[in-house]
Design brief:
single chain, 12 helices, alpha/beta, 41% helix, globular, 5-stranded mixed beta sheet
């Protein structure tokens, strides 16, 4: 499968132009003077960068009614991103399925698809991915706009710059050059990133992190993840594993974690850990996280205690982030929020007890997001690569 022609290059040739475009993308419509104020760039630099973006159709200029009257100087017309100018594909890979979305340039979902995986072998997953991409490319034809890139989000240790999945426990992958393989299969630029970091990019540009220079996204569910934004940049760290609060050990005598240590947040509060603990404490052979949750909601004291302990672990993990980085906001998300009523109080109490000084002033929010939003996060990384010419 090949796309019919190579993707076009984005006409922002400088870091300043990319910064201006992303500012309008997140905060627009904005006048040129408002853009200059937000980016701290000169009015001349803004005007120079905006012109080719308008000419190429990526920015649209809104002509205000009062601006049509003759006046001295340039009218203060706001500019905004034309979301329909380009399309992107985002794919979230889990151990069981692929969730894919087709989005516009403003990361609005136009089409969503789910495909179950019959095998976790890279060759099989790539074949399913190729079929899914072909479906979405066909859908894109109906919009009359080209797909400019693909983003793939995978849990685990992912090196975005190399496009390599170093280790993904749910897919049981090690050192898979996913960006290269998927690029060869689809003929499109592919960006591969950790799923929580991808979700964080979407929150930074389009969600609850817009306008914040320092915030964190903590995800609870199959694993415990954390995406970090520091001084306006999503942090990956030197080795791509920054923000691994799931492997902060909070109880040296706690349960064994798959990483080899004891008492990690993930070993106490992930779905699989909760299921194992509920079985042990209650003697009930709950089949999965949904069954464990039902048992706790039915009032089983042992199951409720397991969730309370999970909430305490999550709260202490979030406090570690607050103490180290002092974010303005922590956004809690993930499928594990289905149990939020069972451990919200414990998260708050443990966070308040463990957060030092003014770190406790951090705004902790919950933001339930369906799996399509994780795929949207993957699309956001593709948009980011396209705008900043970082596609691999």
């Amino acid at each position: 499968m090949r796309s019919t022609s190579p993707p076009e290059a984005f006409p922002a040739h400088t870091p300043a132009a990319s910064q201006i475009f992303t500012t309008v993308l997140s905060h627009g419509p904005l006048t040129r003077s408002e853009i200059a104020g937000r980016t701290r760039l000169s009015a001349a630099a803004v005007t120079k960068a905006v012109r080719p973006l308008i000419e190429a159709g990526y920015l649209l200029e809104d002509v205000a009614e009062d601006a049509r009257q003759p006046a001295l100087g340039r009218p203060a017309n706001p500019v905004r991103v034309d979301g329909g100018r380009a399309l992107f594909i985002g794919i979230k890979m889990t151990g069981d399925e692929l969730i894919a979305v087709l989005t516009d340039l403003c990361c609005r979902i136009r089409v969503a698809r789910h495909v179950s995986l019959t095998s976790r072998a890279p060759r099989s997953v790539l074949a399913s991915t190729a079929g899914l991409v072909q479906e979405l490319l066909t859908e894109a034809d109906g919009f009359g706009v080209r797909v400019q890139g693909i983003g793939i989000a995978v849990s685990g240790d992912v090196d975005r710059s190399a496009g390599v999945v170093r280790y993904s426990p749910f897919l049981e992958w090690r050192d898979v050059p996913l960006a290269e393989l998927a690029g060869m299969t689809t003929g499109l630029p592919v960006t591969v990133d950790n799923d929580v970091r991808a979700l964080t990019v979407a929150e930074q540009w389009f969600g609850a992190g817009v306008g914040l220079s320092d915030f964190a996204v903590v995800t609870v569910g199959a694993g415990i993840g954390c995406g970090l934004v520091v001084h306006g940049q999503v942090v990956a760290g030197a080795h791509g594993v920054a923000g691994e609060i799931g492997h902060v050990a909070i109880d040296p005598a706690g349960p064994l974690c798959h990483c080899g240590n004891r008492g990690c947040v993930e070993a106490i509060a992930s779905d699989s850990a909760i299921v194992a603990q509920v079985r042990e404490v209650t003697g009930v052979r709950v089949a999965d996280a949904a069954a464990a949750l039902d048992l706790a909601h039915d009032g089983d004291p042992g199951a409720r205690e397991v969730y309370a302990r999970a909430g305490e672990a999550i709260g202490r993990g979030i406090a570690t982030v607050a103490n180290l980085l002092g974010p303005e906001r922590v956004i809690i998300s993930g499928e594990g929020l289905a149990a939020y009523d069972l451990f919200a109080e414990q998260i708050r109490d443990a966070f308040g007890a463990a957060a030092f000084g003014s770190a406790a002033m951090c705004d902790v929010q919950t933001r339930p997001l369906p799996f399509e939003e994780w795929a949207r996060g993957a699309a956001a990384t593709a948009i980011q690569s396209f705008i900043t010419s970082e596609a691999h």
